[in-house]
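Bumping with the actual sequence this time:
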Amino acid sequence: MLPDERALLYLAIIATYAVVRCQTARSSETGVECGAARFRIRYAFGFTGTRRLLLLLMMIGFFSAPWQSLMPIFAGETFSGDSRTFGILIGAVGMGL
C-alpha cells in the first residue's frame, strides 16, 4: 500500500467521524441509569453465592495485579536476568507454576 493510499484511508475515516452525530444524554436519564446501576449491584450482592464469587474475584484481582508490573524488576534484580528470564517467568505464570 502506498503512502498516498494510506492518507486517503485516514481522510475517509476522519470524514466518517465528522458526519456522525451523537445525541447528548439528558440529566433525567443519567439519574435513572445511576439508580439502575445501584439496583444491579444490590441484586448481584443479594445472593450468597454470587456475593462470595464477586468478593473472591475482587480479592484475586487486587492481590494478583502487582505481579504484572513488578515481574520485570523481579527478573532483573532477583535473578540478575534479562528479557529471556522475564519471558521464562511470564511463561511459568501462564503454565500455572
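The C-alpha cells above came from a reply further down the thread. The chain has a mean pLDDT of 83.
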